Small acid-soluble spore protein H (Minor) (Lysinibacillus fusiformis), 63 residues
Amino acid sequence: MDFQRAHEIVASPLEYEVSYNGVSVWIDKIHADEKTATVLLRRSLGESSDVDISELKEEYLVH
């Protein structure tokens, strides 16, 4: 994912499916360096990690 898309997802009132290493996450915060973000694991809300934005993947759901 690129910085611009990550920023759009964080700013949006909609919920997007995003994964990090195959694990579903929420993007909590984009850092000023524009390369990293803090993500929260969906299955364990208390667990957070700082990750490279380039390693985030937007999942497209087919209905």
